[in-house]
Design goal:
Blueprint lengths: L18 H9 L17 H10 L8 E2 H7 L6 H9 L12 E2 L12 H15 L2
Parallel strand pairs: 1-2
Helix pairs in contact: 3-4
GO biological process, one term: DNA repair
InterPro entries: MethylDNA_cys_MeTrfase_AS (IPR001497), MethylDNA_cys_MeTrfase_DNA-bd (IPR014048), MethylDNA_cys_MeTrfase_DNAb (IPR036217), WH-like_DNA-bd_sf (IPR036388)
GO molecular function, one term: methylated-DNA-[protein]-cysteine S-methyltransferase activity
Length: about 130
């Protein structure tokens, strides 16, 4: 569940409280909000902005790399957004799987495109229940 570049400073001491139960709920199709107590100080300012905007994408919804770039006031930076998301240390908690290409294709995902597809299907089916 941890992405590239995760280190011990990413997690606050209390973050693990209930995290296993939250993931169980998530993977059984339940809507979940994950904790906000993330220490992203090891990230670049650009990565932090991208990851913070990505966390705002609601469960069961998707946005494009271009949309994320526009939200951080860098409309020309869709590719750089993709690179920042590829370095996301906390996939699912920072839901980079919800970011697609402008034409709706999956794009990439650190866990592989099939995992991205599975997560999107899981969230879509939970959203219509």
């Amino acid at each position: 569940l941890l992405g590239e570049g995760v280190n011990n400073t990413v997690w606050s001491h209390n973050l693990f409280n209930g995290l296993v139960e939250r993931f169980k709920t998530y993977f059984s199709g339940g809507k979940m909000a994950f904790p906000d107590e993330l220490d992203l100080s090891a990230a670049t300012p650009f990565q932090r902005k991208v990851w913070e905007i990505t966390r705002l994408i609601p469960y069961g919804k998707t946005k494009s790399y271009t949309w994320v770039a526009e939200q951080i006031k860098k409309p020309e930076a869709a590719r750089a957004v993709g690179q920042a998301l590829a370095r996301n240390p906390l996939p699912i908690i920072i839901p980079c799987h919800r970011v697609l290409t402008i034409d709706g294709r999956l794009g990439g995902f650190s866990g592989g495109v099939e995992i991205k597809r599975h997560l999107l299907r899981l969230e879509a089916s939970a959203s219509i229940r």
